Amino acid sequence: MKNLIILFFSLTLWGACKKGSESPNPTGPSQPTSFDLSSFKVNGTYGGFIYYNVNMTPTIQASFFAPIDETSAINSISLIDAISGATIPISLSFQNGDSSINIRPNNALPALTKFTFTVSGGLESKSKVKIQSPVSASLYTEIDSTAKFPQISDSALLDLVQKQTLKYFWDFGHPISGMARERNTSGDVVTTGGTGFGIMAMIVGVKRGFITRSDAVTRINTIVNFLITKCTRWHGAFSHWINGTTGATIAFGNNNGADIVETSFLMEGLLCARQYFNNIAVANENALKDSINSIWNAIDWNWFTQNDTQNALYWQYNPSYTSTNDIWSIKISGWNEALIAYILGASSSTHSIAEIVYDNGWANMGALKNGNTFYNIMLPLGPNLGGPLFFEHYSFMGLNPEILKDAYADYNLQTKNHTLINRAYCIANPNNNYGYSNLCWGLTASDIQNGYNASSPTNDVGVIAPTAAISSMPYTPTESLAALKFFYYQLGDKIWGQYGFVDAFSLKDLWFASSYLAIDQGPEIVMVENYRSGLLWSLFMSCPEIRQGLTKLGFTY
């Protein structure tokens, strides 16, 4: 037995020695069958393949599972301006046994620009294996913190914003009707509500010395004469859009007739003009007063309660339809921008609505109340988180919320708290939209990329509209002025133009509108003036009819 064991170990040892003495593989070590990215960082941080707030001289590090062929790297790695398509000159340095590359631009990159970094399928390892998965990453460079324009006093800046924005209504007003074009690409399409805002802007222009009183009276007389002689009216109310040359109605979606809310915005501006241009010894001003009164007295507010059959106002009258629901569309219920329609309806000396129409139609017998707290701020009225900020602008360009209360709300608290909630949401930024901050805030209806959106905390697509914060200046003066300065000094090279601030922008997508809209430009001029002097509030609230209407509906003011 002992001899058998010795024999077994001897045979095992002989086999091991024999195996160890065999010649090595003549073809060398086995080759890798794949070559791919192992890690990717920008300025030492991994963030996937989208990077925001990248400095102007970034270091991009790409590491691989095998050493890289340098020639193929030079030909396969690129940094491209995503907007212009220009290729950015870069330098490559190899590390970690040539398995990592540091890539840097040769010159500082421009601020607020999107770049695409790519590693194409032509990249090879030193053993000539091509990369299995090409690489693509997006880099968005940071805001250039240097001031784009010389620093001026706050008062001078407000003057500048008002004067520049007025040009939209004054220089760009329709050459025939004098009315406000709906947007800067609208041609003959003029807007009824936007014209009301533009008239209020012209009053500001006179007060601030941007235009003369006589020129403003001439322009507004042109507008009212066009409205009276050229435009179709339905029981005194105008359509949403009008052809500025002919006066013909232009359909707004399905609305092909009257729009009582747009008519209200127009009337808000006209009543302010009547109160401001009040020198009856001047023929043009006296004629303007008479024309405005004729438009005002012709509006049959009761007819917009479905011909006095409903305890609510209806937004649109559509004469080409047959069913009641199509003829009368959209019951006007709060909380939104349309409070002014009920105030004017109650204030009419010719066709006044009853108090029950306000309580039932607008207030829904109190259902417009909210009372919940958002970001530790109580919201008196409206949807959760408040909705878009234009809810607090359009009606309050003339109505003074600082002194206004009724059974449903203190409107000073409503306008301020809604604005603060909107701002607090942008600071909290739950959707991680790049660029939102305590200086860059304001969600409201505006243009967006390839469309239009009523932006709000519950409908946030990453787009900021300057009008939201600027037009809230009477409610949040410190916060709104800080935002205005950020828009002008930090982003002015991107969003300040011919008619003031462009309509909207997205730092997340590095999109900057080229558009200007009457309903966004107008509130900026008017609400800044209400912050500075209370001018339009004083004019509108001085109308004896308005005071009577507010009292009728149970307001204190």
UniProtKB/TrEMBL annotation:
Domain SbsA Ig-like: 53-132
Tagged with keyword Signal: yes
Ranges where the Glycoamylase-like domain occurs: 331-544
Pfam families reported for this sequence: Big_5, Glycoamylase
Residue ranges that the Swiss-Prot or TrEMBL entry lists as coiled coil: none
Keywords from the UniProt entry: Signal
Name the UniProt record assigns to this protein: Beta-glucosidase
Protein source organism: Arachidicoccus soli
